[in-house]
């Protein structure tokens, strides 16, 4: 049971665990992390590779492994070298390979890089190289990553500064658990020092990890004696900041810091803490075995990888360092069938009454589980069967490892969902929802991750097989529903929308869904009932957009006039988008409420007219006009002078540089103006805004709604022009 | 030269066994290489093996180009998504999985080695190793090996040095034209004498339908016979 693990430059490791009244500190001297070196790429993945690799038989080490052993023996970075047998892939038996114990945690990568440079470039395959340090320690010393809250609950402390502030001066804005720390940097540092000593937190949550060096620097400048954030002296920089590209999206990962004996969670660099809170994170630590601090900054893929690494170790399979394993050759005809992605039925554009949405529960994870899809089972090479629809791939009869990883998560999520239904305690419900949300993300991502090229145990053929099953399942469900008298309005991946077909009798949806569930082996749930649903067309087109719709849930009342609440479900329209200014969201939600009551585009445009009048009068607070865009590259890398560029330059002008992956917020004050004067940043507290620009944004948001009854942008503008005239006439008393 | 309207001249360069580097004007995309690949499949008895590192195996275009869908069963594709996977695949070409090829194709051979997670000296070594693997496949099976690169620079110099032939496919006013530096090859694929340029797809479809019938008439079905007028 471990709270956190520190790695000291001496090579010693300090292991911290909870006790009734504090923590216990254990020093592990002479910890030597282990990596492995195995056969050549040729024998595992090259000409002797394939479904089941056929490396040549040997009793001991190969000549080139012996040669490597001689070269590495006696090097400072190496503590010990042995010959041990392990499995290098899921489809090979244990073979004698080199086990290298590194002198320290930092020596692991150094050794791997030396091996890469020695001999031919693909002469060796390395294993267990890039495993995060705390996770590695838990694996290799058989230590549970769970801090064990049966001893006592974790104590946490939150330190925050506003996002646009930096440098020593920012410390005057520092808050400790929401309370102002002090009016000067010196007072703030002293307050932090006091709180940390009094509270002795196990977890320090910081709004940005940069606070850690900043506080130490300030303590130094202002001579605050014995200032510490950790349970021993100093802090460690674990990684510098970097920019990366993933799935075509640019991300920014800030520098990472830690302090001895406590877990640091950086709010600007955490997915799971945002999604699931500390309780949800701890639940996931228990399931994935990834220590809390590393889970704090981990991506979904990293948690999934941790789960897979544990399952692989159970089967004595090592963790490959570089992604040597390629896909198998396949006929272009097969790739053509495989490359089609998820199935969608084109939605019937327009407003439909009495609509039901049915969803397959956790479709992709359940396909993996029920169809035994795993990197080592698809196109296994040992079974000559035609199992995957359209593709003809075989799936091995032996149980795959991926279903064993996902099975417990699927079961846990469904049991948590049942508990949420049953509980009457709000705090309990909140905790359960956090746990459920953390697991949901892992399940949602496991499919896509199979197709990710650098995934440790991913395989594109698994991705293709899952898709092929999903297509077949959705099409079969469509047929069953149609046979039972229902008209299918739309279908996408795992959801189907139906309405009673005219002139037909319908069999009950519950019965049909139960039959389909039985047939498929995956539950088809009756997700929602709608009084009406509107499917929007794509912009400038008459075809339906796949994921733009809204509808009124049956038996759900709107909270009050103008509020949408849970009563109206929306997808893909402006109100759902992070970048949309709050005012535009309000306009759209008001319009949705009026549309629900009247189904009239005229009435919707009257709502718009009312809001535009207020906008033109200058009555809208600029806080409600803030646009929030994700930064995709550095300001000087943009080729067009967009508003984002203007905002980035303005931020630079104020001394704040935003990196790709971060979010820039601004108010548009003069879209047609020049340079940095086109926008203002939120903290500049401007009173003015660009009326025309926000008017266009509001009209587009209204167009999203009335387009489902055939109205276009010009129709809205025409209606507004007519209304203005009418209003003017009534003001003047008419003729 | 036969200039009759029923029998227009449709030319594609005849490829020798061994490495041929093909540089293509970017406007033409990967279609000229796909066309060379199909042409070898029409003429040979075996299949094509295509290792793609450039993200250019888009089966939509292959399907549209194929005079008959059955040809798609004779084209074996595998995609490298990392420099390491590509290295494995090019070595795999020399293994027992590859039987009786008519042609081997490696598109964007340098692309993944330029990725930032591979150090430059290591990348150069992997590239050289991959070129050697391709040359070996050409020798062992005595078949043409078509290679393309993403950039013409110092990094890809080893490809030029290893290639027996270096072709350039240019987009000319009379249609795409293959030439080599030595002047031995000069194939204007299909003369657009009237200057009327059809869509790229329709153009190559006609070219391939014609070539397929020339080499491999029995496989080409009635409906897809060439309609060049």
List keywords for this structure.
heterodimer; A: 735 residues; alpha+beta; Alpha-Beta Plaits; Nucleotidyltransferase, domain 5; Palm domain of DNA polymerase; 5 domains; 27 strands; 38% helix; B: 229 residues; alpha/beta; 33% helix; globular; disordered N terminus; P-loop_NTPase (chain B); nucleotidyltransferase (chain A); DNA-directed DNA polymerase (chain A); EC 2.7.7.7 (chain A); DNA binding (chain A)
Task: Describe the protein's topology.
The complex is a heterodimer of chains A (735) and B (229).
Chain A: E1 4-7, E2 13-18, E3 23-28, E4 34-38, H1 41-44, H2 63-72, E5 78-86, E6 95-102, H3 107-117, E7 125-127, H4 133-140, E8 156-160, E9 175-176, E10 179-180, H5 185-199, E11 203-206, H6 211-221, E12 236-239, E13 242-246, E14 249-253, E15 256-258, E16 263-266, H7 272-288, H8 292-297, H9 300-314, E17 330-331, H10 332-338, E18 344-345, E19 350-360, H11 363-370, H12 401-422, H13 426-450, H14 460-483, E20 486-492, E21 495-500, H15 509-520, E22 524-537, E23 544-553, E24 568-571, H16 582-598, H17 601-617, E25 627-630, H18 643-653, E26 663-668, E27 679-680, H19 691-706, H20 713-732
Parallel strand pairs in A: 8-11, 11-16
Antiparallel strand pairs in A: 1-2, 2-3, 4-6, 4-7, 5-6, 8-9, 9-10, 12-15, 13-14, 18-20, 19-21, 19-22, 20-21, 22-23, 23-24, 25-26, 26-27
Helix pairs in contact in A: 5-6, 7-13, 9-12, 9-13, 11-12, 11-14, 12-13, 13-14, 14-15, 16-17, 16-19, 17-19, 17-20
Chain B: E1 18-24, H1 31-43, E2 47-52, H2 59-65, E3 75-79, H3 83-92, E4 101-107, H4 120-141, E5 144-147, H5 157-162, E6 165-172, E7 175-180, E8 186-188, H6 200-216
Parallel strand pairs in B: 1-5, 1-6, 2-3, 2-4, 4-5
Antiparallel strand pairs in B: 6-7, 7-8
